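Pinned message: reference record for DUF397 domain-containing protein
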Amino acid sequence: MTGKDTPAHLADLAWFKSSYSDTSNPSDCVEVATARAAVHVRDSKRPDGPRLAVEPTAWTAFVAWPRVAD
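Predicted structure (C-alpha cells):
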C-alpha cells in the first residue's frame, strides 16, 4: 500500500456491496472500498479477515473485462 492507504486510514474505508449482490443471502458477497492508492476487496462474511488491495488501474481493467469478453 502506498500514499494514504496506511493502516490508520484503512479503518476509515467506506465499504459497499455490489447492486448485483444476492439479496436472498446478503452475507454472501464481496465488499469493495476505494482509496487513493488502491481498491480494497473483502469477504462480507469476514469483515476483519484478509483483504485484497489492487491498483486502481488493475481494478478498472478487472471490472471492464466482462463487457470486453462478450
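Pinned by admin. Summary line: The chain has one domain: 7-69.
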